[in-house]
Inverse folding.
């Protein structure tokens, strides 16, 4: 059975598809949208666990299968990328559950804004890892204060290959952008040196 709160995921995809300069939502990006919605209080019921490649949720994967079976989404190839499109049957689901979508209008809007700015799957992975890592570290510390450097060091210790200079700079950039967009609140740090 489809949890009406899951429709927020489809609503985000539908809105991104209407953005003139946003990339179409591929399968990898589609799998990252639920984490952002869940973190903003959308009652998806998904539990996320860290794995080598990022975050995983079996509940989320089951939800995606239900979307396909209910003809709410379809996949098609665009070059080498599998693009997710919202199917015609979504309109009926949306009408039935408009109150739920209205309730979560703000998280939907913020998620659309964030993913409209993301241009690659790797950038999306950096965003998710940064947000998840910041939340994890703040839970572990006695104080919610966290510096950019602490967050960056934590991420590089988890994602070992991200310690190379080019990747390190990319993650540092992502952290700064998330701060500017209001997704993170961290103490400023110099981020020019790779941690040893």
């Amino acid at each position: 059975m489809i949890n009406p709160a899951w429709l927020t995921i489809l609503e985000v995809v539908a809105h991104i598809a209407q953005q003139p300069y946003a990339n179409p939502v591929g399968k990898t990006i589609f799998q990252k949208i639920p984490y952002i919605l869940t973190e903003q209080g959308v009652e998806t019921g998904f539990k996320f666990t860290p794995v080598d490649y990022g975050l995983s949720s079996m509940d989320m994967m089951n939800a995606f299968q239900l979307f396909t079976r209910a003809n709410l989404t379809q996949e098609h190839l665009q070059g080498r990328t599998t693009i997710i499109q919202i199917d015609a049957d979504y309109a009926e689901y949306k009408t039935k559950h408009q109150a739920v979508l209205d309730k979560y209008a703000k998280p939907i809007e913020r998620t659309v804004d964030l993913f409209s700015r993301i241009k690659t799957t790797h950038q999306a992975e950096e965003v998710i890892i940064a947000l998840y890592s910041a939340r994890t570290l703040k839970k572990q510390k006695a104080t919610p204060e966290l510096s950019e450097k602490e967050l960056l060091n934590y991420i590089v210790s988890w994602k070992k290959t991200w310690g190379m200079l080019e990747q390190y700079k990319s993650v540092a950039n992502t952290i700064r952008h998330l701060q500017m967009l209001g997704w993170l609140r961290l103490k400023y740090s110099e981020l020019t040196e790779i941690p040893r």
Q: What stands out?
A: The longest helix spans residues 121-140. The CA atoms of residues 34 and 57 lie 10 Å apart. The two ends are 49 Å apart (CA to CA). The chain has two domains: 4-117, 121-180.
